[in-house]
Write a structure and sequence with these properties.
With 258 residues, the protein is α/β, with parallel strands linked by helices. The chain is 33% helix and 28% strand. GO terms for molecular function: ATP binding; ATP hydrolysis activity.
C-alpha cells in the first residue's frame, strides 16, 4: 500500500521556482531519504507535504488528497520535525512531547489521561522517561533530538517527515538516533521520510534515495543505483569514492584531489 505519493509537485517562492515537478511514491513502512547539495530544495519539499508552503501538483497520504484537508487534519496524518525546531527552554520534556497531541484536541480542550499515557509510553520507548521532568534547555544534543522525535511520535501519525534529524550530532549519537527510528519503523509499520546530508547514513537506513539538485529530481532508487562517483562529482562538486562495507552497503568516502 502506498503511504505517500507526490505527483508533479512544484514550489515557488515569490514567483521563483525552487522545486520542479517532483513525483515519487513511498510504500507503507518504507524509508525514503531525500538527498542533494545545499539549496537543492529538500526542506522545501518536506514543507510542501505538511502544508507549510503552497505547491503545484498533488500530494496524497494514505489515499487522502492533502488539498482537501485542513491543516489540523493533515497534522493527524503526517508528523513533521523541522531542521531547527523551536525548543522553549522553560518547557519540560513531557510538556514538549505533549505538543504532539495538539491536533487531536478540540480547540479549547485539554489533554486527557489517554494523552498523558501516550506521552509516557513514547518517552519510555526513547529512553527519555528519566528525563520527563527536565527542562529542554538542560538537555544534551542527543537528548534534544530524541525529545523532538518524541513530540512527532506522540502525534501517532503513520507517516513521519524529519528534516535532518541527525543535525549537530556526532557519529555515535546520530547512529543511535537512526537505529531507534528504524526500530520504531519496523515495530509499528511507520513510513519514514528524511532529508540527510550524510550519504552513508542515508545508504544504510533508507530503502530508497531521491537525489535532488536545483529543485529537480536527478534520480531515485536504491543507494547502489543513486550513489556513484560521477554523480557526487557532478551534483556535489565533490571528489569521493563509493566503497562497500562487509555487509554490502555503500560508503561515501571523500578523497582529497591530487
Amino acid at each position: 500500500m502506498t503511504a505517500l505519493r507526490l505527483d508533479g509537485v512544484g514550489v515557488a517562492y515569490h514567483g521563483r521556482p525552487v522545486v520542479h515537478d517532483v513525483s515519487v511514491e513511498v510504500e507503507e513502512g518504507g524509508w525514503l531519504a531525500i538527498v542533494g547539495p545545499n539549496g537543492a530544495g529538500k526542506s522545501t519539499l518536506l514543507k510542501a507535504v505538511v502544508g507549510l508552503v503552497a505547491h503545484d501538483g498533488s500530494i496524497t497520504v494514505h489515499d487522502a488528497p492533502t488539498g482537501t484537508l485542513t491543516r489540523r487534519q493533515r497534522a493527524t496524518l503526517v508528523g513533521y520535525a523541522a531542521q531547527s525546531p523551536v525548543l522553549p527552554d522553560g518547557l519540560t520534556v513531557t510538556d514538549y512531547a505533549l505538543l504532539g497531541r495538539t491536533p487531536h484536541l478540540s480547540p479549547l480542550g485539554r489533554e486527557s489521561t489517554a494523552d498523558l499515557d501516550i506521552v509516557r509510553e513514547t518517552l519510555d520507548r526513547l529512553d527519555l522517561g528519566a528525563l520527563a521532568g527536565r527542562p529542554l534547555g538542560t538537555l544534551s544534543g542527543g537528548e534534544r533530538q530524541r525529545a523532538v522525535l518524541a513530540r512527532v511520535l506522540t502525534t501517532r501519525t503513520r507517516v513521519l517527515l524529519l528534516d535532518e534529524p541527525t543535525s549537530g550530532l556526532d557519529i555515535g549519537h546520530a547512529q543511535a538516533l537512526l537505529e531507534r527510528l528504524d526500530k520504531l519503523r519496523t515495530e509499528d509499520g511507520i513510513t519514514v521520510v528524511t532529508t540527510l546530508h550524510d550519504l552513508t547514513f542515508a545508504a544504510q537506513y533508507a530503502d530508497t534515495l531521491l537525489l535532488l539538485d536545483g529543485g529537480n529530481v536527478v534520480v531515485s532508487g536504491t543507494a547502489r543505483d543513486v550513489l556513484t562517483t560521477e554523480r557526487l562529482r557532478t551534483h556535489y562538486a565533490a571528489e569521493a569514492e563509493v566503497l562497500t562495507t562487509t555487509g554490502g552497503c555503500p560508503v561515501v568516502a571523500p578523497v582529497r584531489p591530487i
